[in-house]
């Protein structure tokens, strides 16, 4: 690992769980996470920076938290996803082999640097890096993409498992991944689990957000139909509109229920067969899962996938294709849209952790 890249990591990222900038809020939970990862709660910054030097020899599966919900728009709170999901993974899956890179440093009012004027950029660089002329990005989407371009250039055999955050975070995660795979001469497909298509061109004038990120990675795919969406059920337009307009392929929840998982898997494979796909990236919005199991999220939806259905599809895909990148998005632990309270939070985290653990295990192979 070059010293330039190490300096970028140590400046643009922070210790796991610290992506949400707070002084006392969730302090105890952050300390529990640091105790589990580092064995102590003091001097965590230096311990984390020292751990970064182990990256070259570490697992192929690398965790990155992006605690940003500025690209959301219904209910906020997904910025707490990285902290809570990590804690659940460490408790329920202590045997996981994954290297934790830490969290992107998030200024919670920002989304992408392209939306900022020069004065704001200078002020934010001064706040984050004590240098208003710094070359580093300041917004979570911009930092993520910049760091990951360098990451894949230096570690082409490793993969990032991103924990969000709202689904806009998948834009830089998938864009950097797809561009890296293209440079490696590999054809990658994106498997996108979601209740929503996320195929708006823009939302209220903003082109990079939770409802539009998919649209803006299509040109980075070898073919647009290499974006396959699973679990769709909340849309103002029919399936034919999205497939004909954008060239993607979709499997709506109602059809999955009607035809069964076995036939759904066969249909997905028929779309991937003869496409010379080398690797898969799985982007998972927790609201793909039925609201009875996943209500701690900004837009829970009924009539969704059962957790075992999602796992069966993932196991089938992993048996045939290497999964080399993935993310888990939109877990908002403090959100209680369904009136289930802490029970709903625990259910959502349990399902999210099961899926995340499987994806991390596959990526580590």
Automatic annotation (TrEMBL):
Transmembrane segments: none annotated. The keyword Nucleotide-binding does not apply. Signal peptide: none annotated. One of its GO terms (molecular function) is agmatinase activity. The keyword Hydrolase applies. It holds the Pfam family Arginase. GO terms for biological process: putrescine biosynthetic process from arginine, via agmatine. InterPro entries: Ureohydrolase (IPR006035), Ureohydrolase_dom_sf (IPR023696). Keywords: Hydrolase, Metal-binding. Belongs to the arginase family. This is Arginase family protein.
């Amino acid at each position: 690992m070059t010293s330039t890249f190490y300096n970028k990591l140590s400046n643009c990222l922070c210790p796991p769980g610290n992506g949400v900038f707070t002084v006392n809020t969730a302090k105890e939970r952050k300390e529990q996470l640091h105790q589990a990862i580092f064995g102590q709660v003091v001097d965590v910054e230096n311990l984390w920076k020292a751990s970064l030097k182990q990256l070259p020899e570490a697992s192929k599966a690398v965790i990155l938290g992006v605690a940003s919900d500025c690209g959301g728009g219904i209910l906020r709170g997904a910025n707490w996803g990285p902290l809570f999901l990590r804690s659940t993974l460490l408790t329920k899956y202590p045997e996981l082999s994954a290297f934790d890179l830490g969290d992107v440093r998030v200024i919670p009012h920002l989304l992408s640097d392209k939306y900022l004027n020069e004065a704001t950029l200078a002020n934010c660089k001064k706040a984050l890096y004590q240098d208003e002329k710094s070359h580093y990005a300041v917004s979570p989407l911009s930092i993520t993409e910049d760091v990951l371009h360098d990451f894949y250039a230096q570690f082409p055999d490793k993969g990032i498992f991103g924990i969000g955050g709202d689904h806009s975070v998948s834009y830089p995660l998938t864009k950097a991944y797809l561009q890296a795979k293209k440079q490696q001469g590999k054809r990658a497909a994106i498997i996108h689990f979601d209740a929503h298509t996320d195929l708006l061109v823009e939302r209220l004038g903003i082109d990079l957000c939770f409802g539009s990120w998919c649209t803006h990675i299509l040109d980075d795919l070898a073919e647009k139909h290499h974006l396959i969406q699973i679990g769709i059920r909340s849309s103002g337009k029919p399936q034919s509109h999205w497939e004909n307009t954008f060239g993607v392929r979709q499997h709506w929840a109602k059809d999955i229920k009607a035809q069964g998982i076995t036939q759904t898997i066969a249909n997905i494979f028929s779309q991937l067969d003869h496409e010379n796909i080398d690797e898969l990236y799985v982007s998972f919005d927790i609201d793909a899962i039925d609201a009875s199991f996943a209500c701690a999220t900004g837009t829970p939806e009924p009539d969704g996938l059962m957790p075992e259905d999602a796992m069966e599809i993932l196991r089938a895909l992993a048996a045939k294709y290497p999964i080399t990148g993935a993310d888990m998005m939109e877990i908002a632990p403090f959100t209680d849209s369904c009136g289930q309270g802490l029970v709903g939070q625990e259910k959502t985290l349990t399902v999210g952790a099961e899926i995340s653990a499987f994806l991390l295990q596959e990526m580590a192979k």
